[in-house]
Amino acid sequence: MEVKYVPTTCPYCGTGCGFNLVVKDRKVVGVAPWNRNPVNEGKLCPKGNYAHEFINSPDRLTKPLIKKDGKFVEASWDEAYKLIVSKFKSYKGEEMACLASARVSNEENYLMQKFARAVLKTPNIDHCARLCHASTVVGLAGAFGSGAMTQSIADIAESKCILIIGSNTFETHPLIGRRVMQAKAKGAKVIYADPRFTPTAKQADLYLPFYSGTDVAILNCIMQQVLKNGWENKDFVKNRTKDFEKVKEIVMKDTYSLENVAKISGIPAKDLATAAEWFGKSGQSAILYSMGITQHTTGVDNVKSISNLQMLTGNLGRPGTGICALRGQNNVQGACDMGALANVYSGYQSVIVPEMRKKMMDAWGCEIAEGKVGLTVTKLINVLADEPGKVKCVYIMGENPMISDPDLHHVEKAMKNVEFMVVQDIFMTETAKFAHVVLPAACYAEKDGTQTNTERRVQMWRKAQDPPGEAKADWQIFCELGKAMGFEKQFPYKSAEEVFTEISRVTPSYGGMNYARLEKPEALHWPCPTLEHPGTPILHKEKFTHPDGLGIFTPIEFKYPAEVPDKDYPLILTTGRCIWQWHTGTMTRRSESLEREEPTGWAEINVEDAKVLGIKDKEMVKAITRRGEIKIGARVTPGIKKGVVFIPFHYVECAANMLTNNALDPTASIPEFKACAVRIEKIAEVK
């Protein structure tokens, strides 16, 4: 019996914790601590502890499947490729779209966007960052020139004041929550703004319960208090930024006084004043946020308001400061970096700049898609549903829009309208059921590769076992399919490492990276432009990434969500995660240990709201919006703000996204998952 330990990186949230996979007789059987990993120092959350349980699940996909007469039948790889190639060649570039994945490696995302642009000649390539942090990329790039978390995770422990808004950090990123607790142990003040009294709220020194969707008003109010009291960092504003006066003019309006914002947000005026004082006076304040900030029609506004506050107080470019945009999926940062977005090649090189397009054509040695912005995920779904025939063919890798996207009735209509769909995944997902061909892929434990965590640290996956049956690594599938399409020269790779070598060559921020350097537990933070460069844990130390080196203030007025409560739908619905499940549940719900803890969803309702509705705890209720309804158990609690309802989005049997609104942020095209109007009804007893 052979037992070995294979160090790797967690496939769940964006923290990027390291652990050892325990391999016995060439099969993964457990997880063990990897104490040398600097992200988590051997500690793990429940998901990480049980990250081995889904790997050898009996319902893993093991053979290619082709749909015949409405049913899937097993096929050979050759048969599947032959069908795919004949179909792909029958469509024009603009009639096709590809969805890459925040769950697979950098190498695989890079190859999918290359396949889309070089082989299929389509500009329509995107992935689910559009549903979680598209507004971060747009907002932070607008303010600073770079759309990523500005600090390292370890830096959070050096903060003297931490504002957490739009993130239930202790449940969704527990090992980042650990750094918050380290800062608190050194005397830092922790401020937490959220409609729910979550485990994160329990650790806060000041809890600010507010109505979902009022973030800009709150942030403008804090800035007004900072300015009124002279707590701004005048030197930083003067020397490192521009357009401050435009923001000052907005935030000093009476609209953003303590009293007015208390009415808009539901936070007591005295608590807003305390938050502003703690944050403004600490000299070393950090902001942590996640999808509670980004998933709004005002997502970009929210991110720019956070940027305004950090520039105003000079809290950037030093340990213990910064903007920590916490990524929800293991490689959502890397998928963006690799150009799996509708508007950029790898390294955020714009598709509409002719020099960038020429650079890629020269690197790839072929003609590529026209230099124009393609369809985003959200716009693609709208086109498929509402303009049938415009996009006819869709290739999806490791994404599950039938659970993750808003307004699922609309998504289902879109899926049914696709003429030819290929899905590449490790399980038969809700989305894969609509496919015409399903290709079995390898999971993180069955291949080498890299992923980039929320702090821009590029880390290794290491193969611990073979994939089940005939399943193959995604990068290998692209190589074989690329060759079958006649692009052998463009897909010559024999290993993931060879793909990474090309990534480094064409992606300036990854230019100094290679597998030898990434083998070390510390790995490297981008930007790392040369082989001598040590990597960049903290961005914007001396200047910002804009050509003139200055940060840009943007004046932002508060706007209400696209849909607000009324007499028919009197409550605000917001959605989120819980500690035991992850994203669409494809992996965690196949983990016995995690599924046992939280086997189904619930609707969290305030005690007073429940009393008015005559609803008891654990009673089944209907949650109804303008888009649909679900039956779900009620969780009656004083720990949610009156007027707000919370539903986790992991569960297909009571899918929160049946209810959510697909209204989009006008700049980032991200949907408003975090605020829409809902009513809760008692289910009448059958007599």
Write the layout of secondary structure elements.
Blueprint: E1 3-9, E2 18-24, E3 27-33, H1 46-49, E4 65-68, E5 71-74, H2 77-88, E6 96-99, H3 106-119, E7 125-126, H4 129-132, H5 134-144, E8 161-165, H6 169-172, H7 174-185, E9 189-193, H8 199-202, E10 206-208, H9 215-228, H10 234-240, E11 241-242, H11 244-251, H12 258-265, H13 269-281, E12 285-289, H14 291-294, H15 299-312, E13 323-325, H16 332-337, E14 344-345, E15 349-350, H17 354-364, H18 377-386, E16 393-397, H19 401-404, H20 408-416, E17 420-425, E18 437-440, E19 449-452, E20 457-461, H21 474-484, H22 496-506, H23 515-518, E21 524-525, E22 551-552, E23 571-576, H24 592-597, E24 602-606, H25 607-613, E25 620-625, E26 628-637, E27 644-648, E28 661-664, E29 671-672, E30 676-682
Parallel strand pairs: 6-7, 6-16, 8-9, 8-12, 9-10, 11-22, 12-13, 16-17, 17-18, 23-27, 24-26
Antiparallel strand pairs: 1-2, 2-3, 4-5, 4-18, 14-15, 19-20, 20-21, 23-30, 24-27, 25-26, 25-30, 28-29
Helix pairs in contact: 3-21, 3-22, 5-15, 9-12, 9-13, 9-15, 12-13, 18-20
